[in-house]
Design a protein that fits this description.
Helices cover 43% and strands 23% of the residues. It is built from three helices and two strands, in the order βαβαα. With 70 residues, the protein is an alpha+beta fold.
């Protein structure tokens, strides 16, 4: 983080309230960074797999967040 000044946290929890937000905040207090958290959308996790895929973080969302940090 100190070398690049960037951090990307990916988690299955809700991005705004999960452990990823806490980790990002803790890192940002120590080092000035550009940060992104990719997590689940703030919705209940559906039972149907095709709907679950829409709520949980996808590889496309992770790649998009990583490209934003470049």
């Amino acid at each position: 983080v100190r070398r690049t000044g960037r951090v990307l946290v990916v988690e299955e929890g809700v991005a705004d309230y999960g452990i990823g937000a806490a980790v990002t905040a803790a890192v940002a207090q120590q080092v000035p960074v550009r940060a992104r958290v990719v997590g689940s959308r703030p919705l209940p996790i559906p039972a149907a797999r095709h709907l679950e895929a829409e709520v949980l973080p996808s590889s496309a969302r992770v790649v998009a967040a990583a490209l934003e940090l470049l």
